[in-house]
Amino acid sequence: MKFTAVALFAGLASAQQVVTLFDAVYSVVEDARSYQIDIDLPTVVNCAAEEWAIGDRFTCSDASWALQINDEYGVSIRIDHIVDGVTYCADAAIEFTGAIPVYQIQASNITVTLEPVY
Which domain of life does this protein belong to (predicted)? Predict the structure, then answer.
C-alpha cells in the first residue's frame, strides 16, 4: 500500500476554516490517548506532491516546525527543523512507517494530506 502526500494551496479562509497544525493533527486521531503529539514552532508545511511507500523517507523541508506522532508501536512520523540556516533532522530524512493511514495538516495557506492509495 502506498500513501500520497499532497500539498494544496488553500484560498482565503474564514477564521473557522483555518486549522492550526496542532488542531489538525488532533482532529484526525481517533483515540488521542494512544498518541503523543509534540509540535514546536509550526509555520508552513513545504511539501511537493509525492508518493511514499512504507519504509520510504521524508526529506527535511525548509519550513520551521517539528512534528512527532507516536502510537503504541513506536514513532510513526517525526520531522524536525530549526531555522538560522541549520536543519536538524534525523539523518536528514524521516522514515514513514504507515502507522497513521490518513491525516491532514494545514498551516498558513498550505494543506498537506497523507492518505492511502488503493
Answer: Eukaryota
Chain segment 29-86, per-residue pLDDT in tens: 444 444 333 333 333 333 333 444 445 454 444 444 444 444 444 444 444 444 454 4
Q: List the strands of the sheet with 36-40, edge to edge.
A: 36-40, 66-71, 74-80
- Cα 24 off chain centre by: 10
Output phi, psi for 8, to 5 deg: -125, 140
Indicate the average pLDDT of the chain.
41
Measured at the CA of 34, the angle between CA 29 and CA 36, to 5 degrees, comes to: 80
Burial class for 7, CB neighbours closer than 10 Å (0-12, 13-18, 19+): middle
